[in-house]
Amino acid sequence: MITDQVGAADAGAVRRWVAQHPVAAFFTFAYIYSWVCWLPAAIGFDGAGAQVLIFVGVWGPAAAGFTVTRLLRRPVREWIGGMLRWRASWHWYASALLVPVALVGVVSVAFVGLGGDLDASLLGERLAVYLPMLIFLTLLGGGNEEWGWRGFALPELLQRHRPMAATDTLGVLWGIWHVNLVDTRPTGRSTRCATRES
What we know:
Blueprint: H1 2-20, H2 22-42, H3 48-57, H4 60-71, H5 76-84, H6 90-113, H7 122-139, H8 146-158, H9 163-177
Helix pairs in contact: 1-2, 2-3, 2-4, 2-8, 4-8, 5-8, 8-9
């Protein structure tokens, strides 16, 4: 009975803290969820389990958004719906799909114009994987973070700060969140979760 009362008191204290500091609570949960998952790789483990935990950890911001939304007793459906709502004209979405293709085309033409040798046989192959890869990256390769960053943190920050200050704050804290994913050693290897040499 006493244990239950202590647990209820602790839960109440957490809810009050989250209610008073929802942004700080979000970033605290996001860092804890992700960094705990990334810890094995960060201290040198490089097996399949560590790689799976890296993927799981990327969902930390989304899990934090869900957690804080629940602790604030807000409707989770409303939080999810905010991310699925189309806020702009279809022209902007078309631009998001087509501008990268156009940029690659312009750069390719400039490359050939400067004397470069372009393998045109790769064009069909690259175009064929563009949309599937975009969908994959949007859902699992980084876009899954946005449920937390843009779905929860940014709206909360915009209630407290001007758009530029809110965006800058989010950008800095987003960058800090990635620290454990960046391999800063000058070894020439691709960027991945920081692991020590065995």
